[in-house]
Design brief:
With about 280 residues, this protein is α/β, with parallel strands linked by helices. The chain has 6 helices and 17 strands. It folds into 2 domains: about 170 residues, Rossmann fold, CATH 3.40.50; about 70 residues, Alpha-Beta Plaits. Belongs to the ribose 5-phosphate isomerase family.
């Protein structure tokens, strides 16, 4: 069995109770549940841990292939996963989406693989910069949107973990940095102009912080951050942007996630499934 994200859901699993209100109680062996007295940054970090706990406990099975990501929640999940592998003797294989994820997998003593050897994954668990009411995601704040979308597309199940700050009714309410778009370097100016002309807003080249010049992805490309002005038909916009010559991939994940776990301020975990049309 192969796993890309990380979990299959059970009503009662490892100390979590699935409540009718669509929230999960904190695990009974988890000590960091008093979030109210903490700073905002620490509170968000603890909320991420709660979501990671829920996802790993509910979606990890005996023999799977996983896809750990590069973002904070999944870094937390790796340590939880490694603990379960040691305690329960699970046969887990991990497929990374970045150099950082690869190093963390090795650091935790987990089995490393790739899409050449495991092209089909059971579950993918990943974070997001923002999640709307329909489970449409903005991803790519860390610059690995193309790899993350490839792996999510190879998974039978794609699960998202995030804290309460990433939860929005509509994209753009919480995340103000725009939709990342990975582009071939020579095309960044014409692509930026085309996006702004067709969809409004502005698409700016992402500049690096610790070096001079733009951010360069693991694929040796540039990233544009499109700051849109209003809500869009995200499925149509995603397809249209990808058709612009020079675009590699967008950070819009439309119709891909099947469940999201949000660590909340009160120490609970809220679960969201796609709306049934």
């Amino acid at each position: 069995m192969t796993l890309q994200g990380w979990v299959s859901f059970k009503k009662h699993a490892a100390g979590f109770v699935y409540l009718a209100s669509r929230r999960l109680a904190v695990p009974n062996n988890y000590k960091h549940v008093c979030l109210f007295s903490q700073s905002a940054a620490n509170m968000a970090e603890e909320a991420k841990k709660l979501a990671a706990y829920a996802a790993v406990d509910n979606h990890i099975q005996v023999q799977q292939v996983l896809l750990p990501s590069t973002n904070g929640p999944c870094v937390l999940s790796l340590s939880l996963l490694a603990e379960r592998v040691r305690q329960e003797k699970l046969n887990i294989v991990c497929v990374p989406t970045s150099f950082q994820a690869r190093q963390l997998i090795l650091q935790h003593g987990l089995t490393l693989s790739d899409l050449d050897r495991h092209p089909e994954l059971d579950v993918a668990i990943d974070g997001a910069d923002e999640v709307d009411k329909d489970l449409t995601l903005i991803k790519g704040g860390g610059g690995c949107l193309t790899q993350e979308k490839i792996v999510a597309g190879c998974a039978k199940h794609f699960v998202v973990i995030a804290d309460y700050r990433k939860d929005s009714k509509a994209l753009g309410q919480q995340w103000k940095k725009g939709v990342p778009v990975e582009v071939i370097p020579m095309a960044h100016v014409p692509v930026s102009r085309t996006i702004a002309k067709r969809f409004g807003g502005e698409a700016n080249l992402r500049m690096a912080v610790s070096k001079a010049g733009p951010v360069v992805t693991d694929n040796s490309n540039f990233i544009l951050d499109w700051k849109f002005e209003h809500a869009q038909n995200w499925k149509e916009v995603n397809t249209a942007i990808k058709m612009i010559p020079g675009v590699v991939e967008t950070g819009l994940f439309v119709g891909m996630a099947e469940r999201a776990y949000f660590g909340m301020e009160d120490g609970s975990v809220q679960v969201r499934d796609p709306a049934v049309n």
